[in-house]
Design brief:
It holds the Pfam family Meth_synt_1. The chain is 39% helix and 13% strand. By secondary structure, it is an alpha/beta fold.
Length: 741
């Protein structure tokens, strides 16, 4: 073992490629247009370019095993041999992608949000009979790959406690079983991994334990102590860095301090240095450069924090607060941004340079104090709150809407977007480049809306959407039409697998200068006698999926956006749109990780949504949508949104939410079609899901819809799937009528 940790490091780095090279290679491979060898070569180049660039930027401690073809939690499941039998295939990559994306007749593993980020991870299944077995090929290969370039790296692996806490009990597990019950067995595999890495000459290994920054029970803390006591006492192993991020370790800090691990990583951007003196004698990897935002680091404040930690704990290493997976690659490519704004920004490359600069500054700063500075404290801000007037009671609204909309039992709708074709994307790029005019582009958008409306009418849907062909992204589109936002050209961030978004930069006060969506909704409604939904993104989600200014409380920024959404709702209603969907898929995502802070957040987040929607009349049906975010954990808050209809992910999680909804008092659409998998559900499968939903949701309040928008699917997949959804709804509807007769 070595006791010397490099003076500067990052806990992880983006892996999709600066120009989304991996995204394109993955999608080409999935579609059968390229070989496995081609995919692997692209992956190798991405890894090599990353290591070379980090070294060139002056980073001393280089991470490896942070690359992934899909998700690091899924990688860990493969590492531990925790692969359910139904996915196993002779080809390892086929097995891997079947777990992530599904296969013919086999649904994929559940997917949900990685803590309070917009990154999605694949949820492993662990049961009493899961056989753990080490497959260390990937981390070993990356160590060797980097070494061939003359670079030593630190393999990064999701730690055993976090891995098991984020897993779910495998189907058929006995009542009361929890994946953490298998800790001893899993830790033995980690021990074998460490032995193999030591034999490879690896000096340090990073085990990520972000689950420790949430509230943990005494039993869970005992599991931490047991796991790292066991691993720390191994005779032949690399030195261990246990990295936490996204908040304070709290009660877990003294537990880790009492184990034989050599280093502990602290998030000193979202967390504090409280209790850091307990780590005296260990290396503190101090995360003072934020991995979650795009603002330049306040060097004086960061240095003050580093010096305070050094005074109280001793050996300090400068680091990012978490992996840089959550930020874009390089702000210098954003030549279209206002120069004054760009000067305030730091993407992954700039953040790595900040880490290296701070490490040099810390080494050159004698003593333990920086005169005139202290560790940063939270500053209170005044907040302006809007009081939402209440709409009429739901029963009154439901009766008025039933009379006005005249919908059948089990109405079928979609969440909003239809496939974004290559032709649409090319036209949008050509418009941005000035190669085509606005009139030509809008003519193409209108033609696409016409096709989408015609397709839905032909399939027999009941509440239609215009398909959102004019939108590049459900948040970016609104950011482009609101004051206070800037958008990037190359600022891609991975959301899951090959899916990337370009989060807008919310840097000033938010205002709506003019209507944003009205003309497209109005045009779509003119093409059909069926109701067409106006489609809006909610205020919490717009803020959550942006990089947000840090000089105002988050709640105040959200209410500024809520003002703009409220104005848009009013204009849609005035234009004759009588079904308006205001999506809040990020409502669960922003819930604080500590229970003590959750009630206050949910109170103002719900109030912001109600402010945005409560101006609508009782005849206007307000929908909302939540997906892939464990929404069953905040059902009381979802109820408090007071939407007339809530659509929610359910197909991918196999109806998990239905076990929690109970007597949900308004319309509910538990998804029956997992759109994040290319597989097309059959009519029998959808009928079964609807039948199960009817055990919990009364037929008069049950809606039929996919789990999420259809943007990422092909028209061939969508048409086949929606035809089966409509057929299944018709079968169940007919059965209900027969039962009544």
């Amino acid at each position: 073992m070595t006791s010397s940790f490099p003076a500067s490091t990052a806990l992880g780095y983006p892996r999709i490629g600066p120009d989304r090279e991996l995204k394109r290679a993955l999608e080409s491979y999935w579609e059968g247009r390229s070989s496995r060898a081609g995919l692997e070569e692209t992956a190798r180049r991405v890894r090599e370019d990353t290591w070379r660039r980090l070294a060139a930027l002056g980073l001393e401690g280089l991470p490896s095993n942070t690359f992934s073809y899909y998700d690091q939690v899924l990688d860990t499941a493969v590492l531990l041999g925790a692969v359910p039998a139904r996915y196993r295939h002779d080809d390892d990559l086929t097995t891997y992608f079947a777990m992530a994306r599904g296969a013919e007749g086999i649904a994929p593993l559940r997917m949900t949000k990685w803590f309070d980020t917009n990154y999605h991870y694949i949820v492993p299944e662990i049961g009493p009979d899961t056989v753990f077995s080490l497959d260390a090929a990937k981390p070993l290969a990356e160590v060797r790959e980097a070494r061939a370039l003359g670079l030593e790296t630190r393999p990064v692996v999701v730690g055993p406690v976090t891995f098991l806490l984020l897993s779910q009990a495998a189907p058929g597990s006995p009542d009361g079983f929890a994946p953490l019950d298998r800790l001893d067995d899993a830790v033995e595999v980690y021990a074998r991994l460490l032995a193999e890495l030591a034999a490879e000459g690896v000096g340090w290994v990073q085990l990520d334990e972000p689950a420790l920054v949430a509230d943990r029970t005494a039993a869970e803390l005992a599991a931490v102590e047991a796991a790292y006591g066991r691993l720390g006492r191994l005779e032949n192993r690399p030195a261990l860095l246990v990295a936490s991020y996204f908040g304070d370790l709290g009660d877990a800090l003294p537990v880790l301090a009492g184990t034989p691990v050599e280093a502990v990583g602290l998030d000193l951007v979202r967390g504090t240095a409280h209790g850091v003196e307990a780590l005296a004698g260990k290396t503190v990897v101090a995360g003072v450069v934020s991995g979650r935002d795009v603002w330049r680091t306040d060097r004086d404040r960061a240095l003050a924090m580093l010096l305070a930690v050094r005074e109280r704990a001793g050996r300090v290493v400068v680091s990012t607060s978490c992996s840089l997976l959550h930020v874009p690659y390089d702000v210098e490519r954003e030549t279209g941004l206002d120069p004054a704004l760009r000067e305030r920004l730091a993407f992954a490359e700039q953040k790595v340079a900040e880490v290296a600069d701070l490490a040099a500054l810390l080494a050159a700063t004698p003593g333990r104090h920086l005169p005139g500075h202290s560790a940063p404290e939270d500053r209170p801000h005044p907040s302006r709150v809007r009081a939402a007037e209440g709409r009429a009671p739901y029963a009154v609204r439901a009766a008025a809407q039933a009379e006005h909309l005249k919908l059948p039992l089990l109405p079928v709708t979609t969440i909003g977007s239809f496939p974004q074709t290559g032709e649409l994307r090319r036209a949008r790029a050509a418009l941005a480049a000035g190669e085509i005019g606005e009139a030509a582009y809008e003519s193409m958008v209108r033609a696409e809306i016409e096709q989408v409306i015609a397709l839905q009418e032909r399939l027999g849907l009941d509440v239609l959407v215009h398909g959102e062909p004019e939108r590049n992204d459900m948040v970016q589109y609104f950011a482009e039409h609101l004051d206070g936002f800037a958008v990037t050209r190359h600022g891609w961030v991975q959301s899951y697998g090959s899916r990337c978004t370009r989060p807008p930069i919310l840097h000033g006060d938010v205002r709506r200068a003019e209507p944003i969506t009205v003309r497209w909704a109005e045009y779509a409604q003119s093409l059909t006698s069926k109701p067409v939904k106006g489609m809006l993104t909610g205020p919490v989600t717009i803020v959550a999926w942006s990089f947000v200014r840090d000089d105002l409380p988050l709640r105040e920024v959200v209410f500024q956006v809520a003002d703009a959404v409220r104005e848009e709702v009013g204009d849609l209603e005035e234009a004759g749109i009588r079904v308006i969907q205001v999506d809040e898929p990020a409502l669960r995502e922003l819930v604080p990780l500590r229970r003590a802070e959750q009630a206050a957040y949910l109170e103002w987040a719900v109030e912001a949504y109600r402010w945005a929607t409560s101006g609508a009349s009782e005849h206007t049906q307000i929908h909302t949508h939540l997906c892939y975010s464990d929404a069953d954990e905040i059902l009381a808050a979802i109820d408090a949104l007071d939407a007339d209809v809530t659509s929610i992910e359910s197909a991918r999680s196999r109806g998990r939410v239905l076990g929690a909804v109970g007597a949900f008092p308004r319309g509910l659409g538990p998804g029956v079609y997992d759109i994040h998998s290319p597989r097309v559900p059959g009519a029998d499968e959808v009928e079964h899901l609807l039948t199960e939903a009817l055990r919990t949701v009364p037929a008069e309040r049950l809606w039929v819809n996919p789990d999420c928008g259809l943007k990422t699917r092909s028209y061939e997949q969508v048409e086949a799937a929606l035809a089966n959804v409509v057929e299944a709804a018709a079968r169940v509807r007919e059965r209900l009528f027969r039962d009544v007769r």
